[in-house]
Amino acid sequence: MALRARALYDFRSENPGEISLQEHEVLSLCSEQDIEGWLEGVNSRGDRGLFPASYVQVIRGLAAEPPPPARYANLPAGGFEPLPPPAAFKPATQQASPAAAPEPFPLPLATGYPFPLALYGGSYQPSQGSDDDWDDDWDDSSTVADEPGALGSSYPDYEAAGGGPSGRYRMSTRSDLSLGSRGGGGPPGGHGHPPGGGGGGGAKSSATVSRNLNRFSTFVKSGGEAFVLGEASGFVKDGDKLCVVLGPRGPEWQENPYPFQCSIEDPTKQTKFKGMKSYIAYKLVPSHTGQQVHRRYKHFDWLYGRLAEKFPVISVPHLPEKQATGRFEEDFISKRRKGLAWWMDHMCSHPVLAQCDAFQHFLTCPSTDEKAWKQGKRKAEKDEMVGANFFLTISVPTGPGASLDLQEVESQVDGFKAFTKKMDESTLQLNHTANEFARKQVTGFKKEYQKVGHSFKCLSQAFELDQQAFSASLNQAIAFTAETYDAIGDLFADQPRQDLDAVMDLLALYQGHLANFPDIIHVQKGALTKVKETKRHMEEGKMELQKAEGIQERCNIISFATLAEINHFHKIRVRDFKSQMQHFLQQQILFFQKVTQKLEEALHKYDSV
């Protein structure tokens, strides 16, 4: 029997291991046995991989060359076991760097799953650097908060204003849970379902929205897919609600009703275990409490990990990089403090991050109260509003005209994607240029000006061999000129600390933001793909209106949140770069004024010659 098939519909591959199909295209099949709704074969362009079985029709009775050997021919006939929902897996670890790309998905034979369970639903894992040791005050066998209220709101009027934890509401999207089921042989890739339902000509209104085959994608790991497919369910407290409002620039996060700032000062070296272990502690003074607390870098690192896991559609600013050696050198400590100050400014300026319970616990828990710190830490780590449930906490505008136009949303997101790519390239270029220019100022310019000064000094010493009294003032003026050029060289060497270093600190912070947005955009794009799939089913009469509207409504929530985050990024970007460019130019003006002043002083020395 011939192992050939004809494509009934177009199919666009989006994940590793898949191939694209064109309508009416003839393919060579490796096997007629499908792998949970997927076949393996070679298309007319010679590409080999997986494609949905329901997108093709097997051509029988035609002679054909022997099929290529199937890569998955030894899989059990029963296919894979149904995947449990993402909520069944407890988030464990996620790499801090969003740039790390997953390897192509494996297909192990023994487990029954198309991906290693240990990698599914991964969350951020704080790195264990040398300045980030997890000693006994962190390692605690208990993982349950023993006492309630350890992580309550730190705002005095917050609960009175309706933002406290008093109200608790059951939120669920399980009314159309069947949309995400893997029954019916539907393709697990999120690329749309052809007419005819899941693999075998199902009845009308039985089409399902398929899962992504790539279970390592950000859309899956963030819980976005589970939320869109209606699998999220949990209790949402009033204090957990994140409101998106319509502002003059479109969707925006609702402003923090109690804005505040937090200074980071006086990094000091401290010891523990009778001096056997040393670390740097930073003094934090939040403006809304006025009470100082001391935090180590590992505390910042822990907080970043919790926030990066909890908020998949929010750009959590990256921390300054770690350093294996020289952690107690003055220059490194000063640079890290400045980086942490920028990080803290962006945290306090974000309407959502600033009000997060974990962040408030970090800012307000007394440094000496170890029990309260551990209780708050455990409670943050047991937060149920993560993954798919996080999206339940987002409240968006409702009523006529509140729904977003998906084509317009897609256009805006595509435009922002192009913007971030260009901004990333330009910040890298500027950072390289600034680094090179600073290096020249510290070494090259200083050396060259001091060479000039030395030459003038040699000339002055030569003139001093002339014992004539009337040339003494000239000799002194030339000697002063030599000293002036030495001093100008020192000014050049010190100047990067005043202007360029601050610019490079800002660029480093924004490079972290720009590294976050591809994942945020991927979540929104994944939601849009599901909506397009439901629209095709609706046009073909294969899906109920209620189910399609549920998916579109949940995609609308993700789109609102994504656009709100984009608008916040632009708002804070304009503020930061305006302030920093003003500071840079002001420092440049002061620098050249100092240089001019020294040259004028040297010039006046010749008036008395």
TrEMBL record:
Pfam families: BAR_3_WASP_bdg, PX, SH3_9. It is a peripheral membrane protein. GO terms for molecular function: phosphatidylinositol binding. This is SNX18 protein. Residues 1-61 form the SH3 domain. Gene3D superfamilies: Arfaptin homology (AH) domain/BAR domain (1.20.1270.60), Phox-like domain (3.30.1520.10), SH3 Domains (2.30.30.40). The lineage of its organism: Eukaryota, Metazoa, Chordata, Craniata, Vertebrata. It is found in: Cytoplasmic vesicle membrane. GO terms for biological process: cleavage furrow formation; endocytosis; endosomal transport; mitotic cell cycle; plasma membrane tubulation; protein transport.
